[in-house]
Design a protein that fits this description.
Layout lengths: L1 H22 L4 H18 L2 H8 L1 H4 L2 H19 L3 H28 L7
Helix pairs in contact: 2-5, 5-6
Pfam families: SpoVAC_SpoVAEB
Keywords: Membrane, Transmembrane, Transmembrane helix
InterPro entries: Spore_V_AE, SpoVA
Length: 119
């Protein structure tokens, strides 16, 4: 049941994002920024953490989860280091996910040997 719930919640977030792109003139990059900022704001208000506990990966995987993760890292770093935590916290929380994405994509490129399309 956890997988179904994650699929449905993540799908709803993606559908809302697609509706936003289809009904407005916003470019995908701006919609991505809106999603990240929404995660930060909902995390700061205290709504996103209970939502993540309910929805699991359906709330953690989309960009709103990334925004929440950045906010949480900054909040924890500010509590530890004061003002300097504003600059350090987001990098600390996002470093593992970003590093993993880079490492796994590098290994995938070695295995599958991608080629650039010719124009």
């Amino acid at each position: 049941m956890d997988y179904i719930l994650a699929f449905v919640i993540g799908g709803i977030i993606c559908v809302l994002s697609q509706i936003l792109m289809d009904t407005t003139k916003l470019m995908p990059g701006r919609v991505m920024v809106i999603l990240v900022c929404t995660g930060v704001i909902l995390g700061a208000v205290g709504i996103y953490e209970p939502f993540m506990k309910f929805a699991g990966a359906g709330a953690f995987v989309p960009l709103t989860g990334f925004g929440y993760n950045l906010w949480k890292g900054i909040k924890d770093a500010v509590n530890e280091d004061g003002f300097l935590g504003l600059f350090r916290g987001g990098f600390k929380m996002a470093a593992v996910g970003t590093s993993a994405a880079l490492i796994f994509s590098y290994f995938a490129s070695l295995i599958f040997s991608p080629k650039m399309p010719k124009n």
